[in-house]
Design brief:
The complex is a heterodimer of chains A (about 475) and B (about 140). Chain A has about 475 residues and is α/β, with parallel strands linked by helices. In chain A, about 50% of the residues lie in helices and about 10% in strands. Chain A has 3 domains: about 90 residues, no CATH class; about 200 residues, no CATH class; about 140 residues, Rossmann fold, CATH 3.40.50. In chain A, helix 19 links the parallel strand 8 and strand 9. In chain A, helix 1 runs antiparallel to helix 6. Chain A is globular, with a radius of gyration of 22 Å. Chain B has one domain: 3-Layer(aba) Sandwich (Rossmann fold), CATH 3.40.50.960. In chain B, strands 2-1-3-4 form a 4-stranded parallel β-sheet, with helices on both faces. In chain B, helix 1 crosses helix 4 and helix 2 packs across helix 3. Chain B is flat. Classes of the chains: A alpha/beta (about 475), B alpha/beta (about 140). Chains A and B meet through helix 7, helix 8 and helix 9 of A and helix 2 and helix 3 of B.
């Protein structure tokens, strides 16, 4: 797990960036380039060269580098670096400092990042409730289980309401499901590429319900800000963090569950850092603004209960699975008990869940507890897993497509008929490549690309499907 | 301005995406025929209404628009045969985003205007401008 210092301080100049991320210690050995999935496919891209470009040519030169936009911040380079350079922090800090911002230039024309900035800026209630109600309808229609149960927590309609420390009674578990950007992905992707995003939310609520949890859901939730943080837009990130944390505080949530690897990372690692930064600069009396500023509001959250526990849904589930597998209890076995009939599933570790948060076992525990599933491992798994090819909706080109195609083939050669992941974006990106491969293979007879490629599912959807068969 | 009565009337900023082949010519037609319509709109010419990705519309809102109108050739009249059909499809996504973000569906609109329909263009822009005027400023500020 690594905590990158991008939010740690008020980053002011290149020197500070180089020293805080230990990039000064780079010995130019090039191991990072050897491990970088982008560099493996684009010869001009090497992390090492980007560092030296910043040192010799300054911000302008560094921002013109291919990696400036194409780096996935997946952290592969950091697994090998003998000088322990925090390259992931370096790239995020560089994007923050650079005069020209890393503009989203993916096939979605930057629609998600624009939407995120609008979520930060607009002081009006969002329209998520209708979408959430749509989930209930969908669950009723697919007949895979009982009615969805969740409790909506009304928003303050964008207005700033002083946070009341109420909510939970001591000892009471208040579990909140942080949905993330699924409604937006659903709107943009379901129609065009047929990638099912709403299904992840339905499955998550279903599984939580089956565990006896009726999760709280924020009606006015905003994007966690992950993508803007990694694109270098720290102001918009702070606004989103502030709005979400205040709402979580008001809801009195003490456990926040998310089905998105990026939300999990951002809520767990980056929010506390920003709260701390603003609290300490307020303490030092450096703030000249009124009490309504985002910085002050974030500072006010320091020491509050908003230090709720943020967990990925697989971690949350693992606790329950551990309970099931405890000595003396019989392991639940589904209808497809014999190992021969089990669906072979490979798990694709999302960067943010794996290398960023160090969560490798929880998703595997969940998968292996599903009776209808046999887990297979791909050649590159856990800390060696390769990124899904696109990060923060920032950049996508032939290199990304190659990474995705390679990953799909890797799953196929491991004998998997399903490639499971634990991040909606991994699902979207891999499914996009899969659709493309299939359309290319089309009526062809190439068996390597037809029929054998795995289906892409989210791990929580597999868990919900298993529940439906019980 | 000093000495003048300050009217509190909100002047909305409207962005109109018009396709090169029909709607832009329709706007031109309105001008040639000297048909009056509110001056609140900024016209952006695109080669086809099918080019107007949801991201363009959201970007307009991000840059301060209060309403966005997308306009193309009538179905069946598209210079590129089916560009406006893909505009229609994409616009569903645009509407979903507007709904989700709380911008509201009334602030985005898709209309077909042919090169001969100057009158229709002026009427649509006038009506849309009034809708946005009623809806008020998007970001809560009244700056124009």
């Amino acid at each position: 797990m690594f905590d990158c210092p991008i939010g740690n301080a008020d980053l002011t100049d290149t020197k500070q960036l180089l020293s805080e991320t230990r990039a000064y210690l780079c010995i130019e050995c090039g191991k990072c380039s050897g491990n970088c999935p982008v560099a493996a496919r684009a010869v001009t891209a090497t992390p090492r060269a980007l560092v030296s470009r910043l040192v010799t040519g300054g911000l302008e030169a560094a921002a013109a580098d291919y990696l400036f936009k194409a780096c996935l911040a997946c952290g592969q380079c950091m697994e090998r670096c003998p000088s322990n350079v925090d390259f992931v922090g370096f790239i995020a800090g560089l994007r923050r400092l650079a005069p020209q911002k890393a503009v989203s230039s993916c096939p979605h024309a930057g629609v998600f990042q624009t939407a995120m900035r609008l979520m930060a800026r607009l002081e009006r209630p969002t329209g998520r409730v209708d979408w959430l109600r749509g989930l209930e309808k969908r669950a009723r229609e697919d007949g895979k289980g009982p009615e969805l149960r969740f409790e909506l927590v009304e928003g303050a309609h964008g207005k700033h309401v002083p946070v009341q420390k109420t909510g939970s009674h001591p000892g009471e578990q208040r579990i909140l499901y942080f949905v993330g950007c699924l409604p937006y992905f659903d709107a943009a992707l379901a129609g065009s590429s047929g990638v099912d995003m709403a299904g992840i939310a339905v499955a998550t609520i279903r599984v939580l319900n089956a565990m006896g949890v009726v999760p709280l859901v924020l009606a006015d939730e905003r994007c966690c800000g992950h993508d803007l943080l990694w694109a270098g837009d720290i102001e918009a990130f702070d606004t989103l963090a502030c709005r979400n944390l205040e709402q979580l505080e008001r809801a009195g949530a003490n456990t926040v569950v998310t089905a998105c690897a990026e939300c999990a990372r951002t809520l767990r690692l980056d929010y506390p850092v920003r709260v701390k930064v603003h609290a300490s600069s307020t303490d030092r009396g450096e703030r000249q603004d009124d009490g309504q500023s985002i910085g002050r509001r974030l500072a006010a959250l320091a020491g509050s209960k908003s230090a709720a526990e943020f967990v990925h849904v697989t971690e949350f589930l693992t606790r329950a699975v551990d309970g099931l597998n405890a000595p003396g209890k019989q392991r639940a076995s589904g209808p497809a008990g014999s190992s021969a009939r089990r669906t072979r599933v490979a798990f694709h570790d999302p960067c943010r869940l794996g290398r960023h948060l160090g969560v490798y076992d929880a998703p595997r525990t969940v998968l292996s507890s599903l009776a209808s599933i046999g887990v297979v491992e791909m050649a590159r798994e856990r800390d060696k897993a390769v990124c899904c090819g696109v990060s923060s909706w920032l950049y996508c080109d032939g290199v990304s497509k190659q990474m995705q195609t390679d990953r799909l083939r890797e799953a196929a050669s491991a004998g998997a008929s399903v490639l499971a992941t634990a991040c909606p974006k991994c699902k979207a990106h891999l499914a996009c490549a899969l659709a493309e491969l299939k359309s290319v293979a089309g009526g062809g007879t190439d068996s390597r690309t037809r029929g054998e490629l795995p289906e892409i599912r989210d791990i929580i959807e597999l868990a919900a499907d298993e529940l439906a068969t019980r | 301005m000093k000495g003048m009565a300050v009217t509190a009337r909100f002047e909305p900023r409207v962005v109109v995406f018009a396709c090169n082949w029909c709607s832009y010519a329709g706007a031109d037609n309105a001008g040639v025929n000297r048909i009056q319509y509110p001056p609140n709109s900024r016209l952006v010419r695109v080669m086809c209404s099918g080019r107007v990705h949801p991201a363009f519309v959201l970007r307009a809102f991000e840059l301060g628009a209060d309403g966005v109108l997308v306009s193309g050739c009538h179905i069946g009249d598209c210079h590129y045969l089916f560009g406006n059909e893909s505009a229609l499809k994409q616009f569903e996504t645009t509407k979903s985003f507007a709904r989700l973000l709380g911008i509201g569906e009334e602030r985005v609109r898709l209309e077909w205007v042919s090169a001969a329909e100057g009158e229709r263009f002026a009427r649509i822009v006038e009506e849309f401008t009034e809708t946005i005027r009623k809806a008020g400023p998007l970001a809560g500020s009244t700056a124009t």
